What does this fold into?
Amino acid sequence: MRLILIFFLVSSTLCTAQNNYPQDYFSNPLDIPLILSGTFAELRSNHFHSGLDIKTQQRVGLKVKAAASGFVSRIKVSHFGYGKALYITHPNGYTTVYAHLQKFSPEIEAYVKKQQYKKESYEIELFPSAETLQVVKNSIVAYSGNSGGSGGPHLHFEIRDKAERPMNPMLFGINVTDTTNPIVNSIFAYPIGENSFVNASNTKQKLRLIPLKNGDYTVENIEAIGEIGFGIETTDRQNLAANKNGVYNIQTFVNGNNNFELDFKQFSFSETKHINQLIDYEYYKTKKKRIQKLFKENNPLSLFKKSLNDGLLNIKDSTYSVYKIRVSDYENNEAWITVSIKGVKNSITTPKTNKTTPYYINANETINLKQGNISVNINQNTFYNNFYLDFSVNNDTLKLHEDIYPAKKSFTINYDVSAYSEDDKSKLYIAKLVGYKKYPSYSYTKRKENVLSTYTKTLGTFALATDTLKPTIKPSNFKNGQWLSNFRYLKVEIDDKLSGVSKYRATVNDKWILMEYDYKTKTLTYDFDDGIVTDTKNNLKVIVTDNVGNNSTFESLFYRK
It folds into this structure.
């Protein structure tokens, strides 16, 4: 079989217009009914979900099959993110992605391990040629798992176009039973500017949502004037799962006319960061609930379709308007929300209070702040909006506002540590203080002479922290001097309480061995089936290094026939 020639001949003709998706080309990647724990473009922390999360009956090890014929074009193994992930490119130009895997099929697994041993690294990214690992539709390519940043056993499945943009797999006939209407949990009104108000207030208002028997909603009548927008908290669920998933489409109408549309059909990875401007970021950070704003507000997302006045309404005095929101899932189940708006020009009884500080962030300008031994560099277009910034320094603690304004890109925090001794400098790192108790969480720290730097996309409180503690290493399923002839796996627990584990290295009789690191269980695992351990008497040596360079060494003797 030579799919490579077919690929180049037909990819340009079969990959047609974006709204013409092949319906019988891709099959279910699992041999079980599709039940989802996550839908496409679902709202996640700092990103849109790029595929379908398919439940695997709370198990790992289910057979994962190629959704169509093609060749393995990319393999990535990492501690975090997708964990073990496989990418298959198909003759029609699309690529399917299978992530959080337990392991690959024997042929692919052997190929990957050979490269891991060659590089002496568990984490690896490979781009096989089109001839190296060809697969046919429904052939086993991997086994489902829980690797990487997975919160439980499942298969993450994607379909991407030629430009590597993820697309909703349901567009290609990957269907899931769904006869349930979306649910609306809350609705908010946003006065825009000083001369706008809702119910005599210039601040955001939570409106009283009234459920109707038919599954729709109405809202208690409101009075408003000026430019206003709306936002909703909404989820969807399928028939066979209780998960609160994302919706497929949101449209708004003013007096029967199209006003705004959000279409969760496809997006590019470069724009997924703009999710933080789509949601009410401050509300999410303070209330842990995602309100989707139904107006653009300086947001370049391609998910926006029809938009009149960026989704905003201009309410005039002595007018009556009916604002409707239609929320639908992929199967076209829908929920409608109706808001009746009376234009009333009266005085604002609750004006917005804007706190001012000496530090004003103009989003179009570069800002450099310095106090004591700490400096902050914010390039232009880092933030979406202008705002007054809280900036103060107390010894080595930096107060940089609260994390209530989203950033498009990273900014830099620098600490001059020249006043510290050489021994102390080597153990310092920059930490973000998180939670009620302000626990120091390691922020990736670069060292250049007497300056420590970190790049971050979040405001908040930062401080210099010290890590003088070595990582801990202890055996998990064996003891020193034990016979392990009947063991399949060798397991070691590693941990670092402060700056965190940076790297590790394991050898047996001075030969590097492949140990898989699961950060969720803090466990290193070696598979004896690798065939590297052939001697009877064996000396295991594990070295673990944390993010400031502290390291520990663990050695143990074991026997094996």
The first helix runs from residue 3 to 14. The chain has a mean pLDDT of 94. The two ends are 42 Å apart (CA to CA).
